[in-house]
Design brief:
4-stranded antiparallel β-sheet, 2 domains, cNMP-bd_dom_sf, alpha+beta, 8 strands, Env_Response_Regulators, about 180 residues, RmlC-like_jellyroll, Crp/Fnr family transcriptional regulator
């Protein structure tokens, strides 16, 4: 089984057979670095399952992107018109894509698809709440180690400014943590 599929099934507690059936109905898309797939100005709702690359959800504060969460291989992201955050590719990405209309059609014709989509959405909302709690209770170092466990090569693939904003640290602190975690 491919790594992204294995992670998706494990993380989201979904059945591999159902996910493969869903992927067969989705379109493979390729995103360029810097491409936005969700924001307040984009009305379309859609679902992406990331095959490769790194994206981030972010808000813009004083003209700078402030990372809320990183998304990588095996993550699913439900995009919808939101004035709270946007989703942008930080590297070139490959992902499976399906529009809201196609999701609704699938869910109307199959209870197993409806349940799968519900599970993906529930997990995304659960993860958002967990992230909010972790910001308050985990130290910068604990968040850093958790991020490295999730995406081991992130320091080599993503500009440090996104990582430092996510951690709430400065570049010097990040360098110290990187040196002491080896």
């Amino acid at each position: 089984m491919e790594a992204y599929l294995k992670k998706l099934c494990f993380e989201y507690q979904v059945d591999e057979k159902e996910v493969k059936e869903l992927l067969a109905r989705m379109e493979m898309v390729y995103l360029d670095k810097g491409e936005t797939i969700a924001s307040a100005t984009m009305p379309e709702q859609s679902l992406y399952i990331i095959v490769s690359g790194i994206l981030h959800t972010y808000t813009t504060h004083e003209g700078e992107d402030r990372t809320i969460r990183f998304l990588s291989e095996g993550d699913a992201v439900l995009c919808y018109n939101s004035n709270q955050y946007a989703v942008k590719a930080l590297t070139k990405c490959a992902a499976y894509y399906i529009s809201e209309e196609e999701i609704e059609e699938l869910c109307a014709t199959s209870i197993s698809f409806a349940n799968l989509v519900r599970q993906l959405m529930e997990y995304q909302f659960y993860f958002k709440e967990e992230e909010n709690m972790n910001v308050r209770k985990l130290t910068v170092r604990e968040r850093y180690l958790s991020l490295l466990a999730e995406i081991p090569d992130i320091l080599y693939r993503v500009p440090l400014k996104y990582i430092t904003h996510y951690l709430g640290a400065d570049v010097t602190s990040l360098g110290y943590m990187a040196g002491s975690s080896k």
